[in-house]
User: Which sequence fits this backbone?
């Protein structure tokens, strides 16, 4: 896919900022051994409230959820930043964000203990980031700016 | 060959390298950010947690096995039925109702699941006594539901109904008595039970009058029965953590403790429903009156007995005692030097004699502190329990949060260096977690200030009344003189303190505790 300089820099920047966000969130959780999503999940709302609360109340499930969440965030962020397996990273990131969204959907009539940082109706920043990842997936740039370029080059040479 | 080699050399050009590794500086910046973050965290936790080891409740002691303990229950009204549930007995029709609701509502599904998972305490309900026929019948049907079944399911043996508590206490078919009567009957039943060598679990408050407080203490000590007063707050984990933090001087010198009751609905103000089947034929009114002044039959007085001094101990005995007992287990307060109370009937002008607003100040000059109780039955503003000290204040509920005081001496240096933020929570404890956290992230700070309502042990919701009964039963089975946490001495302190407040309210003067002669003056 051919990109103009503007398009390329816009897409790469978007990939970097999302990668940054994921990586930092993940690493902070990994560095804090007592971190757990338990309280957040206990505060769930919407259609899947029960599922998330079940997770929160089940200690062995929570161990898995916490580990996968923290490492998932860090690895997805890392992949987007360095530009390796970025399409897989984008898809996994979308799945993770979908979970966050479904646990706290900003639907009218649902109130959460943890206050929202803005006013939302159905669409919130989690959903916006989710769709931004869809853009990353649809317009991959890692073969131009990112480590995927090494393989891309090699493949081109072999062809 | 050589051509291929050339290609390989050219394969990754300088341009490729730059584009391929473009994110390295970004990663560097992020790494620096993470380094700053972890340094901050390290500084924070090393500053707060150094040398402090809060003791965290380490699960439950095992249930002592042995023969089933045979229970007689006096009073199978609201509280009596609740205690039966905590023992594992629920009316079969109630179970059917829960199952029906559980089909549509997940809350009830979890509720019934939790009930079925509640540990079997190995008790048999063998005797029931209630002055209202309908309650007694309901008690029998509940007591025989050994297998937690619905109406169609298998039942155990029906407990025997006794017409009077004296007959029940004399029965050879019971080992222990649970008392869930109105306040004015607690001591008469407890004394009767103890004199027959039956162990006693008595609902709070211990006593209705000052005199009988001394009597019951003597009888319990003389007979050596296992006695537990129904302050299930003894099982609240956060109180145990609070005690250990205060013991380790985390909050500094305590000068003021504020505890409160805030309710704002008829049920909370003791205006309970009157059963249409209640009348002079279905209620043994004379037995209900017992030691109380005579009054002609009144269904209102029967069901809403908490509203009259004739049967009740008012806010002081009914609700302040929970707060007092919580603080007494945390700080070993004991009986105060003096008490001063005021209040009135300001909202529920329904003929009641007990106040619906009550404020009481208890002085502890030897401890240099005041215990303040403030209650209203017509506002739900939750004020919680606050222990105020020079270095920090501690807010207590199911959860515990310690807030740093701006002018603290102990933490002065850390505050000046900007390592600790005054007015913000520095410790929090949420039941079910295995540790006390130093608070760092915004989420933690937020939740710490709120407090979640879930009480968990090993990931399961557990009823504190169940745990309190379990402790009592374990002491009975130990049979070696071990008394439960809310024993007769603790109960005595609870009752005398509450009476000092009540007398002060009645007489409009300060009351004092004469420690040497053990009397209220």
Assistant:
């Amino acid at each position: 896919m051919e990109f103009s300089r503007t398009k390329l820099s816009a897409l790469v920047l978007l990939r970097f900022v999302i990668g940054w966000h994921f990586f930092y969130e993940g690493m902070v959780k990994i560095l804090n051994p007592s971190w757990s999503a338990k309280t957040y999940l206990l505060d769930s709302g919407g259609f899947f409230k029960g599922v998330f609360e079940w997770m929160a109340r089940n200690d062995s499930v929570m161990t898995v959820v916490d580990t996968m969440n923290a490492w998932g965030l860090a690895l997805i962020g890392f992949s987007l930043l360095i530009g390796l397996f970025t399409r897989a990273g984008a898809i996994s990131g979308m799945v993770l964000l979908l979970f966050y969204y479904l646990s706290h959907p900003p639907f009218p009539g649902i109130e959460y203990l943890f206050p929202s940082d803005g006013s939302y109706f159905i669409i919130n920043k989690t959903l916006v980031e989710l769709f931004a990842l869809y853009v990353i997936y649809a317009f991959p740039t890692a073969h131009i700016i990112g480590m995927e370029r090494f393989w891309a080059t090699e493949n081109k040479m072999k062809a | 060959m050589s051509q291929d080699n050339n290609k390989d050399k050219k394969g990754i050009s300088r341009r490729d390298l730059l584009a391929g590794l473009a994110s390295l500086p970004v990663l560097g910046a992020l790494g620096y950010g993470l380094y700053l973050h972890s340094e901050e965290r390290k500084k924070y936790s090393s500053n707060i947690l150094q040398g402090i080891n809060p003791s965290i409740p380490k699960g439950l002691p095992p249930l002592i096995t042995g023969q089933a303990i045979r229970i007689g229950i006096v009073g199978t009204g609201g509280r009596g039925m609740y205690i039966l549930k905590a023992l594992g007995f629920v009316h079969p029709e109630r179970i059917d109702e829960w199952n029906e609701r559980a089909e549509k509502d997940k809350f009830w599904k979890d509720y019934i699941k939790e009930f079925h998972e509640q540990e079997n305490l190995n008790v048999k309900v063998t005797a029931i006594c209630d002055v209202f026929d309908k309650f007694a019948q309901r008690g029998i049907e509940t007591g025989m539901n050994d297998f937690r079944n619905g109406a169609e399911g298998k039942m155990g043996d029906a407990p025997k109904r006794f017409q009077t508590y004296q007959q029940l206490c004399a029965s050879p078919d019971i080992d222990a008595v649970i008392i869930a009567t109105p306040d004015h009957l607690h001591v008469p039943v407890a004394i009767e039970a103890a004199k027959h060598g039956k162990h006693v679990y008595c609902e709070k408050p211990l006593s209705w009058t000052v005199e009988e407080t001394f009597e019951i203490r003597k009888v319990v000590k003389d007979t050596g029965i296992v006695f537990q007063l129904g302050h299930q707050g003894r099982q609240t984990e956060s109180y145990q953590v609070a005690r250990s933090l205060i013991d380790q001087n985390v909050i500094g010198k305590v000068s003021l403790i504020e505890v409160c009751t805030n309710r704002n609905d008829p049920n909370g103000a003791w205006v309970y429903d009157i059963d249409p089947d209640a009348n002079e034929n279905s209620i043994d009114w004379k037995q209900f009156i017992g030691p109380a002044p005579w009054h002609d039959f009144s269904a209102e007085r029967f069901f809403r007995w908490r509203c009259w001094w004739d049967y009740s101990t008012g806010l002081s005995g009914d609700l302040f005692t929970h707060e007092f007992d919580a603080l007494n287990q945390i700080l070993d307060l004991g009986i105060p030097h003096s008490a001063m109370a005021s209040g009135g009937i300001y909202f529920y002008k329904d003929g009641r004699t007990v106040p619906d607003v009550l404020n009481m100040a208890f002085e502890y000059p030897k401890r240099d502190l005041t215990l303040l109780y403030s209650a209203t039955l017509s506002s739900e503003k939750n004020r919680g329990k606050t222990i105020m000290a020079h270095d920090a204040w501690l807010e207590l509920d199911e959860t515990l949060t310690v807030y740093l005081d701006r002018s603290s001496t102990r933490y002065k240096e850390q505050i000046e260096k900007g390592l600790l933020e005054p007015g913000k929570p520095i410790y929090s404890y949420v039941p079910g977690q295995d540790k006390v956290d130093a608070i760092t992230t915004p989420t933690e700070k937020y939740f710490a200030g709120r407090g979640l309502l879930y009480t968990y042990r090993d990931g399961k919701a557990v009823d504190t009344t169940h745990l309190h009964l379990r402790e009592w039963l374990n002491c009975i089975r130990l049979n070696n003189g071990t008394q439960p946490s809310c024993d007769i001495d603790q109960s005595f302190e609870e009752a005398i303190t509450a009476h000092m407040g009540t007398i002060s309210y009645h007489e409009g003067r300060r009351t004092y505790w004469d420690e040497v002669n053990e009397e209220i003056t």
